[in-house]
Give the backbone structure.
Amino acid sequence: MAIIKGPAEWRSVLLARAGAYDPDGSLAEAERAGAWVTWRKTAPTQSPASIIRSVSTADLRGRGGAGYPTGRKWQTVAAQGSDRRYVVANGYEADPGAQLDRTLMETDPHLVLEGLALAAFAVGARESFIAVKATYTTAVRRLRAAIRSAEEAGYIGQDALGAGFDLHIELRELQGAFVLGEETALLRSIEGKRPQPDQRPPYPAERGLWDKPTVVNNVETLAAVPWIVANGGEAYAKLGMNGQAGTTLVQLGGTVNRAGVAEVPMGIPLRDLLRGVAGGEPRGRLKALFIGGPSGGFLPPEALDTQLTPGSLSEMGAIMGSGSILALDGTTCLVDLATLMTRFMGDEACGKTIPCRIGTRRLYEIGERYITGRTRPTDQQLMADLCSDIRDGALCGHEISATNPLLSGMRYFRDEFDAHILRGECPAGVCRPLPPVAAQTPAAAPVSPRA
Amino acid sequence: MIRLPGLGIVRGMLFTFRKMFEPKVTVQYPEVIQDISPKHRGRLLLLYDEWGALKCETCFQCAQACPIECIDMGGVDTRNRFHVHWGPAEQYAERREESAPRRAGRVVPDATFRAWDPIDITGVERVLAEVDYDPAKMVTILERTQDAYGFLPVAALQHISHSTGAWYSEIYGIASFYDHLRLEPASTRTVGVCRCATCVVQGAGRIREALEEALRTELGGTSPDGRVRLDGIDCQGESHPFVTLDGRLQPDMTAERATALAAELRGPVPHGRPA
């Protein structure tokens, strides 16, 4: 995926070295570009507590979507009285359309490993894992080579840097389920069990991998750590906008003028984001932004002043999610898209909780009735009830966010839904709903095609 | 023993009369609760939904929770049918193999049950030796077993269970969870469809429906003749909708072309047999 450079005043942290060295080349070449410099300087001199302190000052938040403060998570794990601790770098990019982590791991594998090493050092973990999607063969190959060369150079492995501690990094290739992106499911998968999410609390920070305290961070979060340790937490906190700290990766797609992966300041209003990296206003008339991957939400053009933070996006009905931002124009039917995204989430439900397993399927069926014009009079109320029940009964983030596409669609694009439900029309001309039969009584209404 | 006509019936009636005059035992159930064996689990039943379809999703949580491993099951999701078997899976297949020829008068081949056929275990034995019989590496074991056999035969899963000590239900739970692990014999061709938002905007949803309709299977399944598998894949590259055939990109795919492609892959349907 193409990397889009932002305006010069946006500092680049995560993609700063993209293209500066050949990721398939030697370690020496990567080091000339600045890899592992922070690790070699800090690890023997700084204490783990001071690294955690700088990460806390930096207000670095989890980039996996939830936005939990990383410093606090590390603090919790470091404070646990346990003989073993683990760090897991989550490079399993579940969204089939997102390639942000992939771009990061492919262009700068050493940065991710250095961040992982710093995290492991900070919390006192001897063993760390980096989980990567098995289909990302290039990323896997480059990360493996990077781990091997770092071990040979003595940066990680037995007696890392000669400073008297062990630091093993193991790469795990995973594939085959969307829910693996969820942290507890990811841990179960690394343990070799059926990867279904577990109830939280206890959080992985207290009882994670093999019931030991475990830090689970996205690779994007970890990749920011070397910069924070080198330049200080305050400097990183200043990189964001509107009181937010740092930078984040987003992926632009749809009708934007420039598609690709870009690094943008956290907290930036979406309007400025589009102006800065997407080549200005999207082509055609912007109808909606679909933010956060399959479980994301739609935002109308009026909401372009929303800031890019997990909090303000979820207030508006979307999520940070995978970080993908899709611009849609008038040729896209939002009812159709929302229904198919719900179907994806229902298909990928792991089956552990019933509201998720059955509820998302029922939600998708309601959406399918909207598309085909076979709506029942009770469907809208049923959908609202079902969405709130699914969210209440949720075990993990999967089902909470699975309701986003339909809920945010109903919230901002009521007219389009009503056109399908009441008049049997699709304004975008994508689906072909049947016109409603005026004389049809509820009892005689055609039943679901799945009955 | 003397053989007299009528002696048998006298013996039988003697037993009956003896029982008749014995004291009766009636437990007033809700008030009095009889002692039952601690191993007794009652009768296991599966629930059906309002349309008569099984609600069981073979998630194996009951089998994993059962302390004495009395629950075991197998689920197959081919032919758009959902089979749930009670008891050990191989036992079910045996029963079927006995009864089917008896009723039909000949051996009935059924691709659905090929997974239960006996296998040559040297392949799975080599895989197990490579990972030192470590049940914690179950996903690796299953992936390599699939590489060796093309799919995961039930006999191989049983062998892994016996050799590593992991419960069969755990192994089956893992094998049935991942999309890339297959329990049915491998197909010759694979069609992949991306389900990401960008592809759906470009019509991937309709292509998927067309393929499911034409191949008569759901995403993640194999067509009834076992020739074509339909997979959900990750978006790669800039082309949307992203549809692949055996890993090669199929550019400019539409629902109509997808139907034509599926028909071409399935080949002519033999006359007189249900498609």
Chain B touches chain A at residues 51, 57, 59-61, 64, 135-140, 170, 173-174, 177-181, 194-201, 205, 219, 232-235, 238 (CB under 8 Å).
